[in-house]
Amino acid sequence: MRTITYQQAIGEALAQQMRFDRSVVLMGEDSTNAWGPTKGLHLEFPDRVLDMPITEAAFVGAAVGAAATGLRPVVDLLFIDFATVAFDQIANQAAKLRYMAGGRISVPLVLRAMWGTGLRRGAQHSQALHPLFVHLPGLKVVAPSNPYDAKGLMAQALVDDDPVLFLEHKMLYFMPGGVPEEPYAIPFGSAKVVRPGTDCTVVAIGRMVSVALAAAEQLAAEGVQIEVIDPRTLSPLDTSTIYGSVERTGRLVVVDEAHPRCSLATDIAAQVAQDRFAALRGPVRMVTGPHAPVPFSPELEDAFAPGPDQVAEAVRATGLVKDAAVRSR
Amino acid sequence: MRTITYQQAIGEALAQQMRFDRSVVLMGEDSTNAWGPTKGLHLEFPDRVLDMPITEAAFVGAAVGAAATGLRPVVDLLFIDFATVAFDQIANQAAKLRYMAGGRISVPLVLRAMWGTGLRRGAQHSQALHPLFVHLPGLKVVAPSNPYDAKGLMAQALVDDDPVLFLEHKMLYFMPGGVPEEPYAIPFGSAKVVRPGTDCTVVAIGRMVSVALAAAEQLAAEGVQIEVIDPRTLSPLDTSTIYGSVERTGRLVVVDEAHPRCSLATDIAAQVAQDRFAALRGPVRMVTGPHAPVPFSPELEDAFAPGPDQVAEAVRATGLVKDAAVRSR
Amino acid sequence: MGTSRTTDLTVDQIVEIYRTMSVIRAFEDRLHGLAKSLPGAVHLYSGQEAVAAGVCAALAPDDYIASTHRGHGHAIAKGCDVEAMMKELHGRPDGICGGKGGSMHIADFDRGMLGANGLAGGGVPLACGAALTARQQGTGQVSVAFTGDGGANQGAVLESLVLARMLDLPVIFAIENNGYAQATPAAAHFSGTDMAQRAAGFGIPGAVVDGYDVIAVHAATAEAVRRARAGEGPTVLEFRAERFHGHMELWDDQSYRPDADPERLRTESDPLLLLRSRIAEGTVAGPAAFELDRIDRDATALVEAAVTAASEPFTADPRTLLDHVYTR
Amino acid sequence: MGTSRTTDLTVDQIVEIYRTMSVIRAFEDRLHGLAKSLPGAVHLYSGQEAVAAGVCAALAPDDYIASTHRGHGHAIAKGCDVEAMMKELHGRPDGICGGKGGSMHIADFDRGMLGANGLAGGGVPLACGAALTARQQGTGQVSVAFTGDGGANQGAVLESLVLARMLDLPVIFAIENNGYAQATPAAAHFSGTDMAQRAAGFGIPGAVVDGYDVIAVHAATAEAVRRARAGEGPTVLEFRAERFHGHMELWDDQSYRPDADPERLRTESDPLLLLRSRIAEGTVAGPAAFELDRIDRDATALVEAAVTAASEPFTADPRTLLDHVYTR
Ligand SMILES: Cc1ncc(C[n+]2csc(CCOP(=O)(O)OP(=O)(O)O)c2C)c(N)n1
Ligand SMILES: Cc1ncc(C[n+]2csc(CCOP(=O)(O)OP(=O)(O)O)c2C)c(N)n1
Ligand SMILES: [Mg+2]
Ligand SMILES: [Mg+2]
Fold this sequence. Notes:
The complex is a heterotetramer, with two copies of chain A and two copies of chain C. Chain A is of the alpha/beta class. Chain A has twelve helices and 14 strands.
């Protein structure tokens, strides 16, 4: 299998589906001069890559109306932080139109956005914000952590009939990975066990998957085998894979760089504490960004996002090390 | 103590502070023709009650700028659902300005909004949405459940130096209650034990406090004494009162009418499952609105919000009834 | 202000236009009495009938409109079923949106009605989107974005002007200036002279039209439709007509409206009476007065039948709460 | 387009204006080389110096400005400390925002600088808010809202025009039309003729001004300031001047900009050279050329000293991450 980058994988999924489905159109600021996943697509699809003025409320709303009348718009929001200026169109229009119309229409819309810390852009260009969108019924939220998933999940987003927020972690754009050339779709709501393990379930998304894997190496050296799960889609969430894992490991750590309150970390931790309480042999642990905006200073920004040490520490704090000690005796 | 309504209590806090502090100004659509808490205030303060055009992004942003330069604006958003059209000004400007400026300024702003189900207004006028704002660092979020708290918390909001989202439950506006005439402030981050109990901690906010109290009556008849806690402020959250209660009861149910995912219910449940796991004698339980927009149909809307039966059922499902049975044997 | 003394509308067309206005009037005035027994908020359209009727008469059945919180008139004019609408207002599962929507969310995409909207200006970008679909697919359809004088100040609406111009979308912005946004007079918030001037600032042609005069409304819209279908892009039309009722039923005493005597409006500025008098004076070719009377009676009967049907007992299954959140 | 041949600015004022432009130029052109070793995004202002310098020269120290992502020039013109700014760009705890802000968030409220902003148009409502404070408190202060040609299409900006007119706020909308929003030419997205015409549609007086001509910029701003202080409300000014550099350092190859030869811009459209030639030809009373040369050298030295200071080793305490989220 050839190796391409995360951003190339997304671009390939777009190009392949655009060849197949003429209703797919790309909308965004500078779409015809894009540098990311959509770079160059306007050359192959000159009529279907549309430059937008800096009017997110209008063009996201227009994409909703277009989706409900026959197009499949793929809107580039650039940074997820800018979703705030189109928030009504996302939260009150896209997410609710089908429901309010009694199910008589659908809104097959894909909103793409860069998310996460690491690029030194300060508080208004570095947020995660997915918890806001996961909270809202009617939206689907996808956050691939690697090139293979990125292509497959985008392919699914492009045939899905509901509005999908497709979150591209900005620090993964140049991540290489094996990606088949032929089209394939990864169904929403199916998590991936990235690393099997027996002692503790660690759920991580986006860039935090590799952080969790780094922690796994540290812990393996201590004789602790963690199971790393990447949910891939945040809404819908594949709770059964997570629950199954916790039933085996009896421990849960959730790792996410979003802020801690009303977050995906609390979401997963609380669902497990409610639905698989009997399986838990120690406290759930959440490793998240702090309750603070993202600072500009590189040193502070690096301190913002969870690192492998914190994850390893959290795993130990599930009470596992005591257990492990007991077992090895 | 005289009895006034929830909306009168809010209005009284505003009037008393406006007499005292000339920097407080009210901004909103039809402010001078308001029917709610601010009704008539323009007569006493004609220069400080300002009618706004339907330009939430502009006037919320202006309120942020005004707050940072010497006023204390109190902005009426009407329905919290409309915060979506001013979301950038709330999430990226109000919440972050102080942090981005290295702490050299503050943004003493109060955003008032009606929230919650019950008024038969459909999907775009009935949301809770507080989880979105609690997620965001830099904001404080307040949700009084009765007239006494409403006055005291508003008084605090008006002297607080940070941006405060003050959520008024629309179905509580005509709730009567004893409210002192003299000004008093309730500090943020202090929960209230609304009903003491020994068997299960039930955390509820807004209109759900009375739902929890109704459930308490049902359960008391079964010999189960629940402790009902109203956090009053959602951000900051008084975890120590909640933790203290769970240490005694060993059980937790969170009741909130917001949607379930990435919600305040998951937030509180997960924090307890992380920080007071050892105290838990059964699964945490969350009773929330469903993962669906709010329907217009009265029958469906009534089914949307949690009721006493669901709360009682959730309390039993913490494993408590088994315990209770054991105890009474 | 655009008014019209001549028209090439046929008698049949005039009959249809009058019928539309008559049904809207009957529907809304009936709701005025009914509102206190209905769930939810009801914003009545009486007085503004000529706008909905005149605009929609200039559209084809597969053209689109996006509406506002004051949307019943637009829905009726675009062909939505009156009984299904009435049932929706009662929150019934056999309502036009299955009871999920209510007054502020009546939609019927099969009729090109993209929905009423609970957010001021909220429907305007949606209408641009339908116009984008038409443009991309070369269908020749046009799309009308309704909003009020107050809603016209929303960022999403003003941005839509920029977007529509940049993409030359086949969209018509129909600004209904009824003099008030809730209690705030248009004169206070409607900065600039009028929406035609505001449109010019965005490079879009515009006109101000007498919104009581259905012939003028139709003519202005027909020209905008012609431009849109010819690929000439958007038009902004400001229609002036006051509402006869308050902002919302059971809400306001209209004390903010000292000069507006609803009775005076009903005699001096009634779009139905105006059309009748134009027919009577012969400037418009229309049917005889007794035929118009029959149309009015039929309209009343239609609405009454809808009320009766909507008053039948029904049960709503709470489990349907979870239907239609997603396609699957 | 507004240009100016005469001025009553004194020699001292001209010196100050030239100095401001010279410092901005030195700062920005120095950053051009430095950007690859700096954290974060850097949007350079070279070419547009006359706008920041001319506008801010017409303001009092306690007047307000709100800026954009391309904000260094505005900050310098409003009196922010150059060394503290340079330190901020390096992410240092002794930067003007303690390293928390960075290039897109430089703020100094003590100088009336309400902050650069990461959101296109994001600062405009904030400036209206400062104007509201001034109006409520009767201080006579005015507030300037900077935004670009692209940002001028944002809903929050267009709504701000409505708001400013309705409240007659002492605010000046300074639209810097530098020909591009990232790679999109203004001609494509800037619907309508110009911002003066757009302003007229909102009932606000406006003018289009040569943004290379600092005398013209100053004159137009001074008149707007006079209006604002006299209680006559807002003004919209469109300043035209292209940026010499790309949209953002290390980002674009400017291939979208075939006609823009930065070298040609630097010779034909340099606001500093233009002011020098106006002085030389005697239409503006200014100092001798050698004095201007010294100002340039001082500016370079000032910036170089700032770079040196900002390059000193430092430590950032990760625990400060949690400071300043709330006042307490
Ligand atoms: C974004 C938003 N802000 C505020 C409201 C509350 N609101 C409902 S109708 C209305 C007045 C609308 O006035 P206008 O657009 O002139 O329409 P009219 O009611 O006159 O038909 C307002 C402010 C809303 N629905 N949406
Ligand atoms: C709301 C929002 N949308 C998009 C962007 C991304 N963006 C940053 S600068 C820019 C172009 C701004 O153009 P203009 O306002 O003309 O300013 P200039 O860069 O030319 O100074 C864009 C689209 C943003 N920062 N904010
Ligand atoms: Mg109106
Ligand atoms: Mg520009």
